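## Example record

The block below lists the input lines for one assembly entry, exactly as stored, with component labels intact.
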Amino acid sequence: MDVSGLAPIEQTALLTEYCRALDARAARPILGDPLADATVRQIDHDFTALGATPSVVALVALRAKMLDERIRAFVSDHPDAVVVDLGAGLSSAVFRVDPPASVDWFSVDLPAVVALRAAVVPSHAHARTVAASVLRPDWTANIPAERPAFVFADGLFAFLDKDSVVGILTRITDHFASGVVAFNDYGPVGKANQFIGRLTTSRNASSPHRQWNFPGFKDARQPQSWNSRLRLIDESSAMHRPETALFPTGLRLASRLSRRVPSIARKARVLQYRF
Ligand SMILES: C[S@@+](CC[C@H](N)C(=O)[O-])C[C@H]1O[C@@H](n2cnc3c(N)ncnc32)[C@H](O)[C@@H]1O
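Predicted structure tokens for the full assembly:
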């Protein structure tokens, strides 16, 4: 499958899927998603240029695992739930979570990525795709509004500007009657951080690391000031998880340090808000 026509923002889906594929190939995986490896093997692309360092692989795998756990808990409490994956890319989360038949799952992404997804990711009986930009309000049009909703974004918000993230959160709470919104987050990301990230990861102009846009925030309650319907219910750092034992050495040391330095813990957090 040729992916040379994807725009740089769409190519970011290749990095996260490749990370999960590398994790699946590891002797001791963190997430262990064999479908990610099967998906990547169908795509003709130089994945090595994407900047999938061992640390990025570990963090991408672990945040997916953390989000999976949160989705499972929500659908266990709400068997009539809808689950919405914003910027779903090629993720096989629906297969990993394996929700009951009473749950409907929607994977939203830009049309070119949804077309690629249809070609390389198996279809799932309870999942549908939505080919739309989440920057347009009509992405919600065909998603039931009255059922409890778990809306999550794994790796999307970093590439959007703050107004876009605020707009998406508003669209979620305007459309869905109740539910949870969850996303991975890096804490505050200053211009200097973004610049260093680009220098140290990849020189490729279309590298995912060059698409970074979101300045982030320190206090996990900040989104409550953007949207008064949101209430923070969970702030968890990948750096505090037992899987850090499987991290590469430098990242493992950082995870130890993160116990005393909260700014390090914030760099790899998963946040959940009820509405
Ligand atoms: C880093 S990837 C993450 C993909 C997936 N969540 C994962 O974990 O592999 C970011 C995804 O967001 C999608 N995306 C970026 N801007 C978008 C937009 N405005 N509307 C919908 N999807 C978007 C990209 O196409 C890409 O698939």
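The chain has a mean pLDDT of 93. The longest strand covers residues 179-185.
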